[in-house]
Design brief:
452 residues; mainly alpha; Growth Hormone, Chain: A; 2 domains; two-stranded antiparallel sheet; 73% helix; 2% strand
Length: 452
């Protein structure tokens, strides 16, 4: 099927809902640990309370991918019904989350929220290869990188913006101890999740299946129930997995294992590296926590700022080489983190009284380049290698290459790696740097098909 070349604004609007999904994910990343602690969770309980994300991604995305491949509605399309279902459920969970009265209520809502986000997220990956000709894959996936960085950045900074502009007071709390600023951030996230996906739904059409595909869909529905058909399709897809997709397993495994290490241990590593303490009761540890938010916000700003700049580079170098270079830059950045400080000033941004950017931000700049590539290049390599009509199920299975490393990381670091590395969080960050570089090296060995 010959697909139309879409212009910049058409590709932007078809991916606009991706912003809402990533805003929701960003709220989770920056607020869930704090919410759990406000409700009485111990530090040692946090890793297992975070299992919702990887486990729901592991289960939901392949199933949604298989179902959406075999779905067609002349009114709603193939992928768009899942965008809407995910957005509505996610919005309800976001609104309810700040009202949690117990740890397990919050944990249950997180499972629902993650499942809903994954229902909406998975079809967005398949949407690129559904709508765009192969020459525009890089553009499409890098637009998703842009919205990933922008959505996550705004989610991270929304509570601070509400407080700093005097809209809310830092001391304003709900009855359960959760800050009022958190409630409003989640409410804004609920609106963003639904509104941005509605923009995609109303501005973007989908290519209808051929008559043969419609007959196949109807025949399959008449012969098998949905559950049996879905799991049969997943099993067949695993057996027939294209070679390039198999070669992408280590490309995904090492960087995603590394990012979970980074998210969990950066604050402790900064506190030890910059201030020589791991004592959570000190002001130094609080400074490290604030710095963590700034550094994470920075790498997401770099991500959405550089996404469009990477488009011509991807066309010239190709996805494999660009991904290798991008991951090496971020890996070296993490390896250098223990040698950087927050006293040497790089430059001062001319906002307000001036925002000081110190030497420690150098690694965050590099990580932003890595993050932009991680959100785009592996999906471009995958989309170029999977058969037509199977994009949904293979994009869903591909997500397993993300969540399985996260699950392995949770248990391996907690019960083995942390002790093996001398119980030193700085060494965990070093390991993350090495693993990101390994992911880049493995990307060079992916054999992509040559297509006309």
């Amino acid at each position: 099927m010959q697909k139309k070349h879409l212009n910049f604004w058409q590709i932007l609007t078809m991916n606009f809902g991706f912003f809402g999904v990533q805003f929701s994910f960003g709220l989770q990343q920056s607020n869930m640990s704090a919410i759990y602690k406000y409700l009485g969770a111990e530090e040692s309980e946090l890793p297992l309370l975070w299992l919702a994300g990887p486990v729901t991604g592991l289960v939901v995305q392949p199933i949604v991918g298989a179902i959406s491949d075999g779905t067609w509605s002349s009114k709603f399309g193939r992928r768009k019904p899942f965008f809407l279902i995910g957005a509505v459920i996610a919005s309800i969970a976001l609104i309810a989350m700040p009202y949690s009265s117990s740890i397990w209520m919050a944990a249950s809502l997180l499972w629902i929220l993650d499942a809903a986000n994954n229902i909406a997220l998975e079809p967005y990956r398949a949407f690129i290869s559904d709508k765009l000709p192969e020459k525009q894959f890089s553009f499409g996936f890098l637009v998703q990188s842009f919205f990933t960085g922008l959505g996550t950045t705004l989610a991270n900074f929304t509570p601070a913006i509400l407080v700093s502009f005097g809209i809310l007071a830092l001391t304003d709390k709900m009855d359960n101890g959760i800050p009022v600023s958190t409630y409003w951030a989640f409410l804004i996230g609920a609106v963003a999740s639904t509104l941005t996906i509605l923009i995609t739904v109303f501005t973007t059409s989908e290519y209808p299946p051929t008559l043969e595909e419609i007959k196949a869909i109807k025949f399959a529905k008449s012969k098998e129930n949905l559950v049996v058909k879905t799991f049969r399709e997943i099993i067949i897809a695993f057996k027939e997995m294209p070679l390039p997709m198999k070669q992408l397993i280590p490309v995904m495994f090492f960087p995603w294992y590394a990012m979970f290490c980074y998210w969990q241990y950066l604050t402790s590593a900064l506190s030890l590296s910059l201030y020589g303490t791991l004592d959570q009761s000190t002001s130094y540890f609080n400074q490290a926590q604030l710095l963590t938010g700034n550094l994470n916000g920075t790498y997401n700003i770099i991500c959405f700022s550089i996404a469009f700049l990477m488009i011509p580079i991807a066309k010239k170098l190709g996805a494999k080489k660009l991904h290798f270079i991008s991951l090496v830059i971020g890996g070296i950045g993490l390896l250098s983190m223990p040698y950087l400080n927050d006293t040497d000033i790089l430059f001062v941004l001319p906002f307000g009284e001036g925002i000081i950017v110190s030497q420690i931000y150098l690694f965050s700049f590099g990580l932003g380049i890595t993050w932009a590539s991680m959100m785009a290049m592996p999906y471009q390599m995958l989309a170029a290698s999977i058969p037509y009509g199977k994009t949904g199920i293979y994009m869903g299975i591909f997500n397993m290459f993300i969540v399985i490393p996260m699950i392995i990381q949770i248990f391996s670091v907690q019960y083995f790696i942390y002790d093996f590395l001398g119980k030193n969080p700085i060494n965990i960050i070093r390991l993350a740097g090495i693993f990101i570089i390994l992911g880049g090296i493995f990307s060079l060995f992916v054999k992509l098909p040559k297509r006309d």
